[in-house]
Amino acid sequence: MVEFGNTLTEWGLKIIPYSFLVYFPVRWLEYKWELGYSLIVKSLWYCALGFMYLSSAVKINLVVTFICFIESWDLLIKQIELNKKREFNK
Questions:
Q1: Which of 27, 29, 58, 64 is deepest in the core (most CB within 10 A)?
Q2: Which CA distances in Å does 5 have to 17, 28, 55, 89?
Q3: Helices 2-33 & 60-89, crossing angle to 10 degrees?
């Protein structure tokens, strides 16, 4: 079971940079097209982080760094949405 967990962690660490780079344009398109799937991606990232904490993985800092940038991008998009709603309500 430990070997399986280590394999999943290694796969995850290989996939994280790609999903990180894809998240930014996908989140922007989601904003433009008024879709709502980015929370699924973020939940998977947080789940991965939780599993890494449980297994005391060494590369937790890498995941935390990616999550910080994704969260900051998401907050920027949310602010733009909020400003758009404020302008609409005037």
A1: 27
A2: 19, 33, 8, 50
A3: 20
Contact 52, 59 (CB under 8 A): yes
Three-state secondary-structure class, residue 1: coil
Report the chain (90 residues): mean pLDDT per 10 consecutive residues: 68 76 84 78 75 70 81 89 83
Cα→Cα distances 17→21, 34, 41, 56, 57, Å: 6, 25, 13, 20, 17
Residue 31 has phi, psi (to 5 degrees) of -65, -45
Cα–Cα distance, 39 to 9 (Å, whole number): 21
- pTM value is 0.62
Cα–Cα distance for residue pair 87/84, rounded to 1 Å = 5
Closest C-alpha to 66, from 81, 52, 82, 80: 52
Per-domain boundaries in the chain: 2-89
